[in-house]
Amino acid sequence: MNHPPIIDVIIPAYNEEKSIPKVIAEIPKFVRHIVVANNNSTDQTQQAAETAGAKVVFEPQKGYGKACLTAMDWLKKQEIQPDIVVFLDGDYSDYPEEMRELVQPILDEKADMVIGSRALGQRESGSMTFPQVFGNWLATTMMKYIQGAKFSDLGPFRAIVWKKLLDLNMIDQNFGWTIEMQIKAHKAGLRYTEVPVNYRKRIGVSKVSGTVKGVIGAGYKIIFTIFRYW
After folding, report:
1. Which residues form the Glycosyltransferase 2-like domain (predicted)?
2. How many whole angstroms separate alpha carbon 69 and alpha carbon 173?
3. Which of 10, 83, 129, 187 is the most buried (most CB within 10 A)?
């Protein structure tokens, strides 16, 4: 890049008042905007995020992808667009300070998208449930044999060139968001890679792995998305 890269962060959040300040505090200072998409939280997520210095946008319709799309809409309206966008969860399970390593392949012009792989990094005991580990293995194996896409994880901690992201025309509004991005990036011929990231127990209860309904819903949507873009 011919100028210092403009890097923005998107954090979808639902009832993360206890964790969101910690996440925001550990995001590297090279980030311009931290956009928290408040996904109809019933606690003080909005106030906590704003106090910590983030821009908060409100999305009343529940859904991980829907929250991400709303945050993207806010970025589209900015006079100066970002060069790179990083997606990060608001539950403090990721290590925001690892963002430097995450974006480096893009800064080196070796990749258009970088996935933070928990499978390649160190996971704290209990940080991922068996359904999560198995689901990631199944999804990435299916992607390899059906689409030819080589990934080890569907990790939410990821970076992508903003213009490339817009070209993907993301549409999923819930559990299929991460895998949709990876499949579309592969099919579009984007250069992608993975870097190891560490993972710890989240603060609070997972909206996906914390309930039987969440596990089944996420599993169904991931498999549906794989075949949708076959």
Report:
1. 9-159
2. 8
3. 10
